[in-house]
């Protein structure tokens, strides 16, 4: 029997995607609301694998692009995915066979359920990041060497922009400029490929993984412990947010967050560097975790992830970090989304190595 995303799955999916968002990808609440509404109106969404699709079937990767601080307030219009689908039909002479999340993290992992339902298409159990990243070229397809053949963007007022970039870096530069012109929030499709082309170039099973993460804390007496175990995560610090500097510029939310330890961690301080997502965690001048590994801030009691735009002074939080998909630890992966890709003069060290686990 084919798997389907039902109303009962949305809450767990949203929790899991929030954790995988590492602070970015957009607030899952808006994506969950859209997903529930679309399922009620259009029906449950089939969840398919690449093996379920013909080799020549077109896969439509969709994601919101922009600053999470903006998308939290300016949600996507229901006809944005429809306009992108129509543009694909115009260009390719046929429509897509499935929707895929470009990034499983944050709202961009949940909202594709709504977009797939609106388009009457199944959702592919895969994405192009295994987490959330802030820039367009930071996707597995770019790391796999697939040319950035096409970017289609649509915004809330009805504009549609088609870009033919020469490479992934230009796709980021041009798409970001269009995004800023659209108020720092737009819907985007990039790397429109066949199922055969996606094989080996996308990260498979990530929707299922997000659901498992979201379900790990359901009914748990120790939600934080259950989540940490499910992720195989390192607990970096438990404490409270004591300082927060955040600004929206150039289509990104940037800033720093300071967490001062409480309880057993009293006297310790952890600083997080942010560009939509949590990028680097530093304690007393020593890096405790860094991209492309995942760093997420969660509520200490409920173990629910807190996006960067939701951080507030005084929140009681725990910072977790765990290994990224192996693809990101390859030379091309680190060149694309390692610490130096974000301007940090750091040599990448795996989080488990820093923590003494390997």
Automatic annotation (TrEMBL):
Location of the S-Me-THD-like C-terminal domain: 168-351
Domain annotation S-Me-THD N-terminal: ranges: 9-163
Pfam families in alphabetical order: S-Me-THD_C, S-Me-THD_N
Annotated protein name in UniProt: DUF917 domain-containing protein
Phylogenetic classification of the source organism: Bacteria, Bacillati, Actinomycetota, Actinomycetes, Streptosporangiales
């Amino acid at each position: 029997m084919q798997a389907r995303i039902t109303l009962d799955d949305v809450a767990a999916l949203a929790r899991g995607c929030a954790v995988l968002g590492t602070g970015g990808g957009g607030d899952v609440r808006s994506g969950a609301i859209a997903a529930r509404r679309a399922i009620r109106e259009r029906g449950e969404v089939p969840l398919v694998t690449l093996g379920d699709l013909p080799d020549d079937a077109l896969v439509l990767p969709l994601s919101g692009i922009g600053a999470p601080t903006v998308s939290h307030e300016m949600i996507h219009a229901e006809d944005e995915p429809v306009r992108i689908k129509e543009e694909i039909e115009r260009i390719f002479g046929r429509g897509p066979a499935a929707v895929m999340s470009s990034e499983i993290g944050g709202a961009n992992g949940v909202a594709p359920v709504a977009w797939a339902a609106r388009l009457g298409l199944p959702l592919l159990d895969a994405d192009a990041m295994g987490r959330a990243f802030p820039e367009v070229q930071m996707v597995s397809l770019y790391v796999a060497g697939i040319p950035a053949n096409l970017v289609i963007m649509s915004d809330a007022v009805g504009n549609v922009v088609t870009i033919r970039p020469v490479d992934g870096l230009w796709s980021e530069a041009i798409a970001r400029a269009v995004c800023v012109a659209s108020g720092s929030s737009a819907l985007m499709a990039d790397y429109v490929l066949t199922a055969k082309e996606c094989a080996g170039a996308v990260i498979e099973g990530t929707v299922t993984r997000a659901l498992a993460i979201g379900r790990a804390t359901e009914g748990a007496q120790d939600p934080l412990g259950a989540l940490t175990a499910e992720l195989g995560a390192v607990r970096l610090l438990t404490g409270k947010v004591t300082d927060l500097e955040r600004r929206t510029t150039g289509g990104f939310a940037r800033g720093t967050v300071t967490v001062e330890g409480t309880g057993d961690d009293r006297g310790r301080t952890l600083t997080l560097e942010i560009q939509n997502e949590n990028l680097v965690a530093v304690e007393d001048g020593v890096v405790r975790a860094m991209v492309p590994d995942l760093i997420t801030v969660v509520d200490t009691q409920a173990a629910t992830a807190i996006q960067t735009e939701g951080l507030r002074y005084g929140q009681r939080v725990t910072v977790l970090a765990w290994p990224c998909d192996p693809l990101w630890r390859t030379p091309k992966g680190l060149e694309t989304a390692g610490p130096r890709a974000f301007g940090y003069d750091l040599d990448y060290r795996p989080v488990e190595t820093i923590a003494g686990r390997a």
